[in-house]
């Protein structure tokens, strides 16, 4: 199942809000459809929204009728701004869009058609590199996974959240492929249930044993000695190694520390935002109350109740045992080890 694909100048996006009940693709012929899909989590997960936004920029530029290079560049910046504003936390979104804009600006081509082709090839490159990077994350990460490990994960950092294979689930997949007989506990991940709906769905298809738990069961699971390690993805990692990921991740990291369990974060280098000194600077998306007051459209709280709904939290670097990237595994102090990765070739 492809999270997205490009076909005859159209971006086809798997509508993840319909999973696991229905497998439906949305045809995106304009950037507004892509922006709506990102905002409403039809496509979600940091690397996946980066790749989708890249294709969205192509669509926005292609339909603009720009007559020359200047018009095309102006349009590209305008569409990139609109796409960037859809979700604030995952840095892959602006990273991908900036990469496309930089490619345009570096080109001396004057012909709008030629510039559009450049954008398409860059969007394909982002997609392809993400898939390849995730396989490397899997290879590096699986070395940290003991035979028979029982692994807890949160949200969905799988094929659905990326161009394919996944980051945290990539590590689990690679361990499974290496014959390590791993099994997984998937947090349901309130409020939008990415763990229950998406992670279990992916793992069942791969025939990797998975047990679903609600988020508030993780502490007892660890206390009972039923889990050996935690691995999660990331939406943005600050230069000091603080990690923003799906709300609930921080709690798991605190619990892992209390129970003496390794807490691993798996993410490509494109998720590291070297411009931010610490996690305090990471913008945290707050979403609408209806996601908390309703479950699948059914009200589960009194009408009008006040709600706080941050979509992500920040795990301090001191709670992270290691960060598994597409360029290798790094350990504290992250300020130095993450910066060192910039010198490592792909
Ligand atoms: O709100 P979502 O579903 O986009 O949140 C996704 C996550 O928090 C993932 O863990 C993260 O983006 C990493 S995906 C490889």
Give a written overview of the molecule.
This protein starts with a strand and ends in a 5-residue tail after the last helix. The strands form four sheets. A seven-stranded mixed β-sheet has the order 6-5-4-7-10-15-16, with helices on both faces. A four-stranded mixed β-sheet has the order 11-8-9-14, covered by helices on one side. Strands 1-2-3 form a three-stranded antiparallel β-sheet, with helices on one face. A hairpin with a 2-residue loop joins strand 15 (322-325) and strand 16 (328-330). It has eleven helices and 16 strands. It folds into two domains: 4-134, Four Helix Bundle (Hemerythrin (Met), subunit A) (Up-down Bundle), CATH 1.20.120; 138-341, Rossmann fold, CATH 3.40.50. It is globular and about 65 Å long. The model has no long low-confidence stretch (mean pLDDT 97). The protein is α/β, with parallel strands linked by helices and 346 residues long. The protein binds 5-S-methyl-1-O-phosphono-5-thio-D-ribulose (MRU).
Which helices and strands, and how do they pair?
Layout: E1 4-7, E2 10-14, E3 25-28, H1 31-39, H2 46-62, H3 69-84, H4 91-106, H5 112-142, E4 150-153, H6 168-177, E5 183-187, H7 194-205, E6 210-213, H8 218-223, E7 229-232, E8 236-238, E9 243-246, H9 249-258, E10 263-266, E11 272-273, H10 290-293, E12 294-295, E13 298-299, E14 312-315, E15 322-325, E16 328-330, H11 334-341
Parallel strand pairs: 4-5, 4-7, 5-6, 7-10, 8-11, 10-15
Antiparallel strand pairs: 1-2, 2-3, 8-9, 9-14, 12-13, 15-16
The chain binds 5-S-methyl-1-O-phosphono-5-thio-D-ribulose (MRU).
5-S-methyl-1-O-phosphono-5-thio-D-ribulose (MRU) binds at residues 41, 44-47, 90, 155, 157, 161-162, 167, 194, 233-235, 245-246, 311.
């Amino acid at each position: 199942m492809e999270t997205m694909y490009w076909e005859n100048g159209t971006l086809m996006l798997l509508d993840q809000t319909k999973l696991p009940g229905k497998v439906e693709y949305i045809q995106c012929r304009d950037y507004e459809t892509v922006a709506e899909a990102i905002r409403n989590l039809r496509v979600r997960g940091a690397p996946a929204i980066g790749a989708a936004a890249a294709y969205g920029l192509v669509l926005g530029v292609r339909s603009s009728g720009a007559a020359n290079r200047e018009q095309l560049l102006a349009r590209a910046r305008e569409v990139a701004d609109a796409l960037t504003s859809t979700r604030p936390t995952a840095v892959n979104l602006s990273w991908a869009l900036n990469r496309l804009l930089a490619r345009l600006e570096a080109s001396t081509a004057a012909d709008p058609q030629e510039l559009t082709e450049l954008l398409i090839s860059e969007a394909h490159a982002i997609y392809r590199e993400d898939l390849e990077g995730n396989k490397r994350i899997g290879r590096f990460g699986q070395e940290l996974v003991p035979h028979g490990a029982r692994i807890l994960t949160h949200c969905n950092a799988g094929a659905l959240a990326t161009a394919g294979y996944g980051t945290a689930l990539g590590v689990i997949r690679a361990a499974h492929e290496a014959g390590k007989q791993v099994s997984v506990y998937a947090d349901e991940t309130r409020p939008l249930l990415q763990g229950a709906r998406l992670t279990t769905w992916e793992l069942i298809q791969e025939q990797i044993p998975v047990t679903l738990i609600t988020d508030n069961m993780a502490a007892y699971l660890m206390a009972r000695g039923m889990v050996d390690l935690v691995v999660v993805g990331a939406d943005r990692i600050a230069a000091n190694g603080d990690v923003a990921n799906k709300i609930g991740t921080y709690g798991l990291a605190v619990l892992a520390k209390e129970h003496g369990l390794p807490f691993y974060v798996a993410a490509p280098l494109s998720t590291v935002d070297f411009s931010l000194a610490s996690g305090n600077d990471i913008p945290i998306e707050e979403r609408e109350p209806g996601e908390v007051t309703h479950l699948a459209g059914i009200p589960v709280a009194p009408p009008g109740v006040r709600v706080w709904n941050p979509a992500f939290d920040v795990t301090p670097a001191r709670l992270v045992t290691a960060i598994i990237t597409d360029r290798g595994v790094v350990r504290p102090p992250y300020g130095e080890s993450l910066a060192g990765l910039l010198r490592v070739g792909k």
